[in-house]
Amino acid sequence: MQTKPKRAALYARVSTDGQTVKNQLRELQAVAERHGWEIVATYTDEGISGAKGRSQRPALDELCKAVNRKEFDIVAVWSVDRLGRSLQDLVGILGELHSKGIHLYLLQQGIDTTTPSGKAMFQMMGVFAEFERAMIQERVKAGLERAKAQGTKLGRPTIGNVKRKRILELRAKGWGIRKIASELRTGVGTVSKLVSQVT
């Protein structure tokens, strides 16, 4: 019985207008041909830095929406830094893929999550996420101590001490600004300002 070929989506990105995604796509198309994948979608962000988040990268945003709809079985990218430079963004993207059972192929790093060693990469990203949360926690603690030593008052009077403490606790656990604001029913700007004062 012949198995259906894997449906593949290609993603390519370049930082400046003077660069082109053609070389990345050509190599990814060759990989797809070697593996017998059927390319069902191609996403490209051109002239956009990898430091920018998903909301500022239209093609990546479309890719992630298609991931949620399970429109393909594997996402092929030329290199991990094409997906993003922020560990938080990378972990988020990998988590979305993993939750939908979609594999990832990174050409330059030789990572293919259809293999046992590639699957281990997903687990490693979880370790990196924990490390990042620990770093955020340390920065928050250090910022609180510095502010206390300098006699700085944190936040605006409109935030109660209990809520202020809860915001910082959640941030120390690695929660994002928007998630904290939603959980505590506080403005995103208020949470962002308070966090920036102690980190």
Please describe what this structure looks like.
With 199 residues, the protein is an alpha/beta fold. It folds into two domains: 108 residues, Resolvase, N-terminal catalytic domain (Rossmann fold, 3-Layer(aba) Sandwich), CATH 3.40.50.1390; 69 residues, no CATH class. The protein has a five-stranded mixed beta sheet, sandwiched between helices. β4 and β5 form a beta hairpin. α4 crosses α5. The chain is elongated. The N and C termini lie far apart (58 Å). The mean pLDDT is 82.
Which features would summarize this protein structure in a list?
single chain; 199 residues; alpha/beta; Rossmann fold; five-stranded mixed beta sheet; 8 helices; elongated
In short:
The chain has 199 residues and is of the alpha/beta class. It folds into 2 domains: 7-114, Rossmann fold (3-Layer(aba) Sandwich); 130-198, no CATH class. The chain is 54% helix and 14% strand.
Architecture (CATH level 2) name of the largest domain: 3-Layer(aba) Sandwich
Task: Bin the helical content.
Answer: 40-55%
Put simply, the count of helices is 8
Give start-end ranges of low-pLDDT stretches.
none
The first-level CATH class name of the largest domain: Alpha Beta
Shape summary: elongated
For CATH, the homologous superfamily of the largest domain is named as Resolvase, N-terminal catalytic domain
**Series of H and E elements:** EHEHEHHEEHHHH
Structurally, the number of domains stands at 2
Using the coordinates shown, work out and report the CATH topology of the largest domain. Rossmann fold
Q: Write down the Rg.
A: 20 Å
Determine the strand fraction and express it as a percent band.
5-15%
